[in-house]
User: What shape does this take?
Amino acid sequence: MAATVSETVDAFHRGRFQILQPKGRGHRAGMDAMLLASLVADETPCRVADLGAGAGAAGMAVASRLEKADVTLFEFSSEMVDFAHRSLLLAANAALANRIRVKQADVTLRADARREAGLLDNHFHHVIMNPPYNDASDRKTPDVLKAAAHAMTDDLFENWLRTAAAILVPGGQLSLIARPQSIADIITACGRRFGGLEITLIHPRSGEDAVRMLVTAIKGSRARLTFRAPLTMHADDSHAFLQAVDDLSNGRFGYRRNDARNRT
Assistant: This one.
């Protein structure tokens, strides 16, 4: 009998980097992580924190596209931290591994405990996050690793965005991907911490309801919220990604903010 495969090596950005992921359990990174990474459109030297990084797909995608980005992956699960560490040892990642570090940390920590975990005050230029998104009423999964990655609590965005605001430099950028149903919680959690929210709804096809949204915001900004043109994934009669989405997901371009030249 063939041995059971417990993990896979998956390539992203057309093979420019790879990650190890658990097979048949846990959260497996894909399009969400790649679109999240595209929100960091900064060609200058910058420090990036990936909160709840899992095996590191989004943070590694930032480092793959931006040669001057220094990335820290923060993840609570010791098992996923191990996947991230081992991913960085893959030969395919040799060109970017020296710009990425992995830290096990609870991103909801506060004050000294947060700082001791490496979540330093006013340190990062960018914070990215793909937080758990399943509502408490959603069907539960018996997969403990997957449940930890997907289960959302009532105060999740308040806790995560509080940390993001603490560790970002003034004027730093928050970037996240979430379900559209979380929009009220996100706006409330931004409060006076973040302004200039730019929200892009993601639709599978023209005429279909949005299934995700991309959100960016600037620490300390007082600019108003903007709804950007929606992003459509597929043509009506196809499962192939439209060119703009394919470019973003494969690291050819970043999804630059509308106000990139004139932040308020």
